[in-house]
Amino acid sequence: MNKRQVLIFGGSGLVGSKFLELNAGRFNISSPPASLVDITDFNQASKFIEDSGAEVIINFAAFTHVEESEKQKNDKRGLAYMLNAAGAKNVADACKILEKHLIHISTEYIFDGTKSGSPYIEEDKPNPINWYGQTKYFGEQNVLESGCSYIIVRLSMPYSAYYQQKSDIARFFLNQLREKKQIKAIINQRITPTLTDDIANALAVLVEGKASGIYHVSSINHTTPFEFAKQIVQAFNLDSSLIVSMTLGEYNQKKMAKLLKNSWLDSAKFTGEFGQGILHSVEESIKLFKEEVDGKG
Ligand SMILES: NC(=O)c1ccc[n+]([C@@H]2O[C@H](COP(=O)([O-])OP(=O)(O)OC[C@H]3O[C@@H](n4cnc5c(N)ncnc54)[C@H](OP(=O)(O)O)[C@@H]3O)[C@@H](O)[C@H]2O)c1
């Protein structure tokens, strides 16, 4: 059987690179670097989409520095807006014209984090509280307004056992603790840190299926940064006395872009439609993370 032709933008990033690594045998994937295809240029993006012959386009490309984005607040020529909103529009408009199916990657930051007691579901009303979230929300709206065939996949705190270019919550905690450095971890924030392997596998299922609409793809339960750090300590047999608790308020005081109090995404729609076993619990993911870290060690 012929493999599906998939074109991805942002294939060198934290999440895109894992999709590429795990799905290179499953699909025919084309992953042009940003130096070859700049999605802020409609003509470049459109021409590449057309020439690639891909049926499905996944747009991982984004400006993901939350704090840096805040310095660009309301600047529509800033990179955050240019990539997350205008770039998303270019890709979606090209997909509409060329009749391609788009999987657009978004974030929990489109919400305001004030929902209490339960996770965010796909139908909850977006209300971003920082510029990164705002630009990503513009991006989602642009995808919807383009009229293209689409899936919007919202992620939360992706982390990977290995990725050179940038850190993430799990490797930051692990590396600090291994070096016997103290870490401050928030006790009153709800999070769904998600292993990029799970995201890559979930996206593969979406590439093969006929779904459309919005999906939350995240770990199937939630935790707090403090509990997450404790789980890492336990899995890697490290010193738990190095973990010091802090409140979200203390953390946010020092930041221009505020973290969400509740960034817990509900992935029940995805698991209900595509089955259990693709997305793991936070605890299971830490085990898989450890196996991969040890395997690379
Ligand atoms: N990381 C998170 O915490 C997080 C959380 C929730 C959702 N997400 C979403 O998940 C997606 C992937 O995030 P990530 O963390 O994997 O991103 P990332 O590591 O920051 O990578 C960004 C990617 O975008 C590419 N890119 C930059 N400028 C471009 C341009 N002008 N044209 C085309 N490509 C360009 C980069 O290519 P070069 O390397 O060549 O510059 C890189 O491959 C994004 O939509 C993000 O909003 C991320």
- Radius of gyration, in Å, reads 19 Å
Strand arrangement across the biggest beta sheet: 2-1-3-4-5-10
Percent of residues in β-strands:
15-25%
CATH H-level superfamily of one domain: NAD(P)-binding Rossmann-like Domain
Catalogue the unreliable spans: none
Major beta-sheet overview: 6 strands, parallel
Word description of this protein:
The chain has 297 residues and is an alpha/beta fold. It has a domain at 5-166 and 194-220 and 265-280: 3-Layer(aba) Sandwich (Rossmann fold), CATH 3.40.50. It has eleven helices and twelve strands. The strands form four sheets. The chain has a six-stranded parallel sheet, sandwiched between helices. α4 (79-98) runs parallel beside α5 (131-146) and α6 packs across α8 (225-236). The longest helix has 20 residues, at 79-98.
